């Protein structure tokens, strides 16, 4: 029974990782449309963007909880190097996610804002966030021995 529980946790953990990373790739074409859209289209694009960010946050919660349960019930300890590095990157990505998207998305409705600059900032933020998430994914899958 314990083995089944652990396997289900792994499945939940992997699924939540996919949901927290995958939707960000659909934002690249959306960012291009933010530059040239009219006000009606802009609201729809911004709503989609916010939804993706919110989805990533909530799937990140599932990812963290399932990760904690996996460490507690599995063969790994909190002192394992790849777990420590994953936690460091997780903390960095949480700080980054909190500041990277929402303030920039709000600026699209302000007067005299350069949409091209805002879109470029969003594009850069998407890449940074994806790289952070892929680094965490590499540590979780590769489990490198660092020290």
TrEMBL record:
Species of provenance: Metabacillus rhizolycopersici
Residue spans crossing the bilayer: 6-28, 82-101, 122-141
Its recorded name reads: DUF2269 domain-containing protein
Assigned keywords, A-Z: Membrane, Transmembrane, Transmembrane helix
């Amino acid at each position: 029974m314990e083995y089944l529980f652990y396997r289900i946790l792994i499945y939940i953990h992997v699924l939540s990782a996919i949901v927290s990373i995958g939707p960000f790739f659909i934002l690249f074409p959306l960012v291009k449309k933010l530059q040239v859209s009219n006000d009606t289209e802009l609201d729809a694009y911004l709503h989609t963007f916010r939804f993706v960010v919110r989805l990533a946050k909530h799937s990140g919660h599932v990812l963290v909880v399932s990760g904690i349960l996996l460490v507690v019930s599995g063969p790994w300890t909190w002192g394992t190097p790849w777990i420590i590095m994953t936690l460091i990157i997780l903390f960095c990505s949480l700080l980054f996610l909190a500041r990277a998207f929402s303030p920039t998305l709000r600026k699209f409705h302000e007067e005299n804002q350069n949409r091209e600059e805002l879109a470029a900032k969003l594009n850069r933020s998407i890449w940074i966030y994806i790289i952070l998430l892929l680094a965490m994914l590499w540590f979780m899958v590769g489990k490198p021995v660092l020290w």
